[in-house]
Design a protein that fits this description.
alpha/beta, 14 strands, 36% helix
């Protein structure tokens, strides 16, 4: 069996373009799907997929580790977020091909199931475009949280913290404290709450000020309390707060995650299989975390193929905890699929049995949503003095 073509299918989902990667073989009807979505870098990622083709055409798709090394080693230059996203989408498609060829789901190839179902969480109102609610009106925000929970979720991730600088003004901190307490009171203790800082605080002290007032509601974790990449600072913060921390969506390599694990900087890591070299990288990262007693909560606010990939990974990963999903991002999310494994039942996805990833893209339907320049959120992110802020 040989690889004969590698194609990309781009689907516009308003705030991002989903980048689906299709690897085609010389076996009639046998192909694989992956997802390489990288927000607001669509043209760069699809061009990089083109650049990687010479390393793959004519090769045996079953030699997944070998092909990953061809892509990463022969590229010479470190690939970074754009290059590794392209590699990830191709790598996932290779696993899909192998599973289909052998007639088994990908989780069977990863060592088999360690669980029957996968706990998932969503965002406010399932991150539906145009349905978000600001944090100024606490009552309206709590109504939206309750509405989200009533969709069948037992866990939800929320944004409590505004655009921030190096300080945390007391009136703002007090409002965050009231907001967090009101949400917990509204949903009760049976619902897990997570909050994503998006790396907005630009100092450890500013992050700590917000975490200290959120900690009493016992969140499952605070995500990206500071910008990723400064692991010593994250480890310092972890020792100064009484709240579990999480990070990882903007880390890509086992070496980066090893530093996080070695310093016990967080309680949970959040690798994104669309950026960290798919299953190959994700499995290495999960093993590193397991050795350090750290749970895995994979990042995924993207399209249906990314969700299908995450499900296969989660089913076979011992230290998995909970999976992010964004199934409701657009109303036609599942319409572009002719096979679809991501049905929510009592807050869980269930282990799929179909060969490969268990998902197929309906290409004519996908073509109804062609590439467009995305609406980039938070372009207004800034402080009162006009300083550009992390969003």
């Amino acid at each position: 069996m040989k690889i004969t073509a590698i194609e990309t299918v781009v689907v516009n989902a308003i705030h991002r373009n989903w980048i689906f990667v299709k690897v085609v073989t010389d076996q009639p009807g046998l192909h694989g799907w992956g997802e390489a979505t990288l927000e607001w870098k669509t043209r760069a990622v699809t061009a990089t997929v083109e650049d990687l083709k010479p390393f793959l055409i004519g090769e045996d798709p079953a030699r997944i580790e070998h092909l990953v090394r061809r892509m990463t080693h022969f590229s010479f230059w470190p690939l970074g977020s754009i290059g590794l996203s392209a590699v990830s989408g191709i790598e996932q498609a290779l696993w899909d091909i192998k599973g289909k060829a052998l007639g088994v789901p990908v989780w069977q190839l990863l060592g088999g199931r360690v669980r029957d179902k996968v706990r998932v969480y969503t965002h406010l109102r399932r991150a539906k475009i145009g349905a978000q609610v600001g944090t100024d009106d606490i009552s309206a925000f709590c109504d939206a949280v309750q509405e989200t929970v009533e969709m069948g979720y037992e866990a939800v991730k929320l944004g409590f913290v505004p655009y921030s600088g190096y300080d945390a003004p007391l009136p703002v901190v007090r409002h965050v404290e009231k907001l967090a307490a009101a949400v917990r009171e509204r949903v009760g203790d049976s619902i897990d709450i997570m909050t994503d800082f998006h790396g907005r605080p630009q100092s450890i002290d500013a992050a700590k000020a917000y975490i200290d007032v959120i900690a009493p509601i016992r969140p499952l974790f605070v995500e990206e309390a500071i910008q990723p990449g400064n692991t010593p600072a994250m480890a310092d913060l972890a020792r100064r707060v009484d709240c579990p921390l999480a990070t990882g969506e903007r880390l890509f390599t086992p070496r980066e995650f090893a530093e996080v694990a070695e310093t016990r900087a967080v309680a949970y890591i959040q690798p994104d299989l669309a950026h960290c070299v798919g299953f190959s990288g994700g499995r290495r990262i999960a093993a590193i975390a397991e050795a350090a007693g750290i749970g895995v909560c994979p990042h995924n606010p993207m399209g249906p193929v990314a969700g299908a990939v995450a499900l296969q990974f989660d089913v076979a990963t011992p230290n998995f905890v909970i999976q992010e999903e964004a199934v409701g991002l657009v109303p036609w999310f599942r319409d572009i699929c002719s096979a679809y494994p991501l049905d929510l039942v009592d807050g869980f996805w269930h282990a799929p049995e179909a060969p490969g990833l268990g998902i197929e893209i309906d290409e004519p339907e996908a073509a109804r949503h062609p590439f467009e320049q995305e609406i980039i959120p938070a372009m207004e992110a800034g402080l009162a003095d006009g300083t550009v802020a992390h969003w």
